[in-house]
Every structure is written in structure tokens, then in C-alpha cells.
């Protein structure tokens, strides 16, 4: 059983980004256990990363991430970068030094936007952090999902065969990366 955590940078209840991540994840093999990881965390402050002071939200997040074998990062683009909540989750998971929950976990980066460039800036900004965190990341196909409001139907589902085929190719590349890293 492979455990995959989905981390969604959008905190909106009706998040397009979350819907796209779930659609891509639906193409993972049936023996993959997929769960969305909550990133509503206390802001990272090194002063709190001491015994007896660590917020419960950090402890829960770190415990969840320690049980994950691979990660799908799904992010909208805010000001040509990633949302603050996503960056905070990355920081919480990377601390304390030497105890990163991210190390060597295969990752997939999906960026989602109503705009035409599909969150390119957020995708690249997130990849920069993942390099430092020592996470192997799917390189191709790149997953910039632009025009998201045009590919979701009234129920928030992706039904266009062209998009679904693309999502399957993304999921297949992620599975290949996971398999290569499990050898």
C-alpha cells in the first residue's frame, strides 16, 4: 500500500485546486491510499519549536506527513507565487532541522488557475522549495492547469476526455516516479 498525501494550497471551501487534485488522484492505482492533509496550521515560529511549546496543529501535521510515502502539491497562484498557508506547511514540515517530513518523498506539483498560464509562477516557486527539501519531483508532463473554470462542469467535475487523458498521463508519471524511488 502506498500512502499519498494531497496538500492543497487553496483554503477555499469550493477550491478549484482541490477539485483538480482529486481528479488527478482518481487515476492513481487502486492500491494507493490517498488523503487530503489539512494545512490550517499555526504560523511557524522557531521559538515554539521547543519541547512543551509545539502547537498541536504542527504535531498532527508532522505525524500525518510521516505516514505519507509521496505527496501531490496542488497550488493556486497568488501574486506569482504560492499561498502563504502552503509555504507555512512546507516550513512546519521541514523543521526542526534534521527532522524534515519531506526528505526523499516523491512529489507531483499541480498549479491551477482560471488564467491562461495555469499558475506557472506558483509552480516554479514551489519547485524551488522542493529542490531544497530533497524531494524528487515529476518533471514531465508539467502540470499547469489553466482556464480551470472552463474545464469544471456545474458539479465541479472534470468530464472533458482531453483533460482526463492529460490528468491520467500526469498520474502515470507520478506513479513511475514513486516506483523508481521505491527500488
UniProtKB/TrEMBL annotation:
Molecular function via GO: FMN binding; oxidoreductase activity
Pfam families attached to this UniProt entry: FMN_red
Residue ranges of domain NADPH-dependent FMN reductase-like in the record: 3-147
Any coiled-coil regions, as ranges: none
CC terms in the record's Gene Ontology section: cytosol
Name recorded for this polypeptide: Flavoprotein
Species, as recorded: Lentilactobacillus senioris DSM 24302 = JCM 17472
